[in-house]
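PROTEIN FOLDING TASK:
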Amino acid sequence: MRQATQASGALGGNPHGANPQGAEAWARRIRRDWVVFLLAGLVLLVIAALAAGSRAGSAALDQSLAQAATAARLKVAVLRAEIEKHRSLPFVLAEDPEVAALLAAPGDPARVDHINRRLEELSRGTRVGVIYLLNDRGKTLAASNWQAPDSFVGQDYSFRPYFRDALANGTGEHFALGSMSHRPGLYLARRVGDEAGVVVIKLEFDALEAEWAEDAMPVLVADARGIVLLTDRADWRFRTLAPLPPETLAALHAGLQFGDAPLDPLPLALAPEGGTARIGGADYATVVQPVPGTAWTLHLFAGLEPGRRQAETSAALLAALAVLVAMGPAGLLLRRRHRGVERRARDARHREVLEAEVAARTADLVAVNAKLSAEIAERQLLQDELAQANRLAILGQIAASVAHEINQPVAAIRAYADNAAVFLDRADGANARANLGLIAGLTEKIGAITGQLRNFARRTSGAVGPVEVAAVVEGALLLLGPRLRRQDARVTKKIADGLPPVQGKAVRLEQVLVNLLQNALDAAPQAPAITIEAGLEDGQVVIRVADNGPGLAPEVMARLFTPFVTSKPSGLGLGLVISSDIVKDFGGTLGVENSPQGGAIFSVRLKPA
């Protein structure tokens, strides 16, 4: 009875009936409920505002980083294009007969004048800073700025590294401050003939830096030593990302590569975890991109304020408004609850206690069920994410080899296309069509490789269905083809005729085989021999992958499918765990045994579809 009375009080009833003291206690209870309600609403409002603001700030940072990364890639592409389109100009001039003739007879005024005018016209047409010709001692014989007050004609540039490199190796590149113009630029040099002289062009990036200055995102390009070469902020030029050793500073000042610039560090406060930097009291999202074809890196800084503050404030206000809106119906419900309890307080207390207990237990069961469902969904999502991460890790391992595999047909396509153009000029249609046919074959080869990579990287979706074992084996071998050829691996396939399809998903089964094949290649890095067998045993389709490695130690085999257990020095011990889970999801098993002839044999057993 005491328990029932207490439960009735918990439901908000007046256990004292018409007793004045009981009525006063009930009034106190109502006031306490409203105080608790308001305090809970206030706490919820604060928590919701803080959480929403924090999440919005993180989202703003992610968005800023994504936008900055896109902008950085675009700037790198433009910078690279600006450099690459001029790399061939020194080569063309080095092969020019008139340039060679001037080097052979440098004392001919008419020839010097002719070359000066040619270089001047070429400089205007290509928008190159300066083009000039040096003899084998580094003296300038002709230059595009021959009429300018700071003309290079007659100057000695034998001390410049690009001259020495070009004379010794055929080509030279060097970024420096001009000794005459005092303007920074990239010098591209090419030797003429058998050390007869050197052709040099100087690229200046004033226009590019001016474009960078228009988008309000600070940007700089630094060399391998961290010295700022290009930037849209003049006070950053020839400063460093980090302090340079004293001996390096002394060598740079002695060589006059950057004039008398102090080469002191920039006032940048980079976050230890990366991704952000503080410049002049403001936070910036930081993106670093390498510049292909050079030893440079481009650093772009995207401002986070006031965008982040605005996002945080807006999200916090919306969350607070949502809580306030939700509190209105909740307050009405609380008021209605009080009135209902007042009406029902005088009767059926024992029934209410029983109903309350049933409701509480039902709520507990529903909560437990919901929690279990959420945990199951979370574990399934985690398993999917882990499998996807494993696939992406595998793609990262084979990306370089696949890129090399694609480069060869691309180079061949270019050669066949050039030949086809020549045949068309000769009206030789038959040979031109033959070359175009070869180009079509090579593009199909590239398409097969990239298509397999794209399918492998795609997230799996949909229900489990029939999968052809032979197609999965071929897909895994195609993905690992470059590595198999690089290690000179010998692969033997034994796929039984009439093998039924299995129940599963093609991409996931392909992931399992790729993991097993990579383990086989790791087990015998020197002349690996791999055997892939597939057949029907006891009503199941069995796929075996055998290698010629040393096999597995008993202590490793006993815990092989335990996370973070591996026999490879650089392995994480997750590949076989993920593969085992994938096979189990399809109703199969993954096992391993050592072969009497040496090596390990992994067996995948699956149900026929």
